[in-house]
Design a protein that fits this description.
Elements: H1 5-20, H2 24-53, H3 55-63
Helix pairs in contact: 1-2
């Protein structure tokens, strides 16, 4: 369903806890900081996955979304 379910779950949990605490400033800050971290981390990880698995991973990545908004 998605390539990075752990990252997606952590993002939902971290932002969701701030929503539950009714903390709008932290909600926005958590979302931005975590999204920036994942936007940098995922390409780094996928570079090595592409090296290891080659064309199989390329095909998989084309078919399956990363699971995080605006990150392919």
């Amino acid at each position: 369903f998605m390539r990075h379910p752990g990252y997606s779950g952590f993002l939902l949990w971290a932002v969701g806890t701030q929503v539950m605490l009714c903390n709008p400033v932290s909600t926005v800050v958590f979302a931005l900081v975590l999204w920036r971290f994942f936007a940098r981390r995922i390409p780094y990880e996928e570079f090595f996955l592409r090296q290891f698995f080659g064309s199989q991973y390329e095909e998989y990545a084309r078919k399956v979304h990363s699971g995080l908004p605006f990150i392919n």
